[in-house]
Amino acid sequence: MDKKSNQTIESIDPRITRARIQTGDNTDMEGLAHFQTFEVFHQNKRGAQHKHVGIVHAPNPDMALLYAKEQYARREVTANIWVVPSSCVSATEYSDDDIFTTAPEKIYRNPATYKVMDRINAFKERGNKPTDKV
């Protein structure tokens, strides 16, 4: 007997029906005992960057997209959603924080070192009165 079903999920929501998600074998509940964790990234408008908004637990990526849509796209304008298995995300160790230290010759990248900071601080001290001489 074939473990995969050729039936797709029919839903009131036409977007779920259009996704053509296979129903699978309903008798195989062992595979559903431990869902995967997926990281969810949300995009407000086309061309904007995706931002991490949270996680969902789902048996597969297709269901993760549906759960992410329901959880994170209901209240905001949404152009796109990404789901990524948490096991696929790589990160540095906190003990390796020395790789992020800035070399002294890159001090020009820190805006606090700009000469205009003296004028900005003087402006703040005067109580925001625009009488600064150029």
Describe the protein.
With 134 residues, this protein is an alpha+beta fold. The chain has a domain at 14-24 and 35-88: Phenylacetic acid degradation B (Ubiquitin-like (UB roll)). It is 20% helix and 16% strand. The protein contains three helices and three strands, in the order H-E-E-H-E-H. Strands 2-1-3 form a three-stranded antiparallel β-sheet, with helices on one face. Strand 1 (36-43) and strand 2 form a beta hairpin. The longest helix has 12 residues, at 61-72.
Main pleated sheet: 3 strands, antiparallel
Radius of gyration: 25 Å
What's the total count of β strands?
Answer: 3
Mean pLDDT across all amino acids:
79
- The CATH C-level class name of the domain at 14-24 and 35-88: Alpha Beta
Continuous helix count? 3
What is the global morphology? elongated
H-E order: HEEHEH
Q: Strand order within the widest sheet?
A: 2-1-3
What percentage of the residues does DSSP assign to strands (E)? 15-25%
N-C termini distance: 84 Å
Query: Which class do the helix and strand fractions yield?
Result: alpha+beta
- Catalogue the unreliable spans: none
At CATH's second level, what is the architecture of the domain at 14-24 and 35-88?
Roll
Q: Examine the coordinates and then state which fold CATH places here, giving the name of the CATH topology of the domain at 14-24 and 35-88.
A: Ubiquitin-like (UB roll)
Helix content: 10-25%
CATH homologous superfamily assignment of the domain at 14-24 and 35-88: Phenylacetic acid degradation B
